[in-house]
Amino acid sequence: MYSIKMRASKNNRHISGAETIVEREKIEEYVVKFIRRAFSHEIGTPDFINIKIEEIKEDIKYIDPLPIRTVECSSKEEARKVARDILRREGIKEEVIEEAFKILDRGGMRGASILNLEGERLEPDRERGVRVKCISTSHELKERILGEKLGTERTVDAIAIATKVIDLGVIGELCISDNPSYTTGYVATKRGYFRITNLKERGEPGGRVFFVSIPKEDRDKLERLIRDLENKPYIIR
């Protein structure tokens, strides 16, 4: 099995990214798909595309996805109240959730921010953030999500991230797309993957935040988590 990763940017600004884990004979097919994806993004046309192909030598972990639920909201205020309620049920304090929304509303990060339960930011690089890599969804799961109308193509990508993140011990994830026209975001916890419509207004920025129970001084635990988020291979089936 091989990992394929694509990142596209313009003037050093992130535009698009994609990745998957596939058999050797499907590498060319997915490289072409990812190039087309990079050149069709609504943010703009990239001036740099990086594609990385690596053979996976570590054992792949196969797990079932988080349950997918959609919460329809008529306004940003209603949507954010729903998100806050889900996160509070996991013991995350209101002021920490508020800090997470401030991070997302500023935008501009290439990866995820990490907040502990005291509201302290833990990611080593606040511009790059932390990327969740070496992930894929199975063809069968993709067909089920789209066929049963559980979500969109974006859901197929996002459920892989969310499921891996929670499996590695993250308490909760709050994500808002940085695509200007896409206003649906999600919250993921051990209880499920909650798609929430209208989590932002059109044209606003986005990003993702992971909530963890790691003290700021426990650098070893943080480093292990980041290493696993970025390198441990997962296929969500």
What would you say this structure looks like, in words?
InterPro entries: BioW. It is an enzyme of class 6 (ligase). This is 6-carboxyhexanoate--CoA ligase. GO terms for molecular function: 6-carboxyhexanoate-CoA ligase activity; ATP binding; magnesium ion binding. Its cofactor is Mg(2+). With 237 residues, the chain is an alpha/beta fold. It folds into 2 domains: 2-57, no CATH class; 62-236, no CATH class. Helices cover 32% and strands 27% of the residues. The chain contains 6 helices and 12 strands. The protein has helices at 27-39, 76-88, 94-106, 139-147, 153-167, 219-231, and strands spanning 2-10, 13-22, 48-55, 61-63, 68-71, 113-116, 135-137, 172-176, 185-189, 192-196, 207-212, 234-236. It has a 6-stranded mixed β-sheet, sandwiched between helices. Strands 2-1-3 form a 3-stranded antiparallel β-sheet, covered by helices on one side. The longest helix is centred in the last third of the chain and has 15 residues, at 153-167. The model has no long low-confidence stretch (mean pLDDT 95).
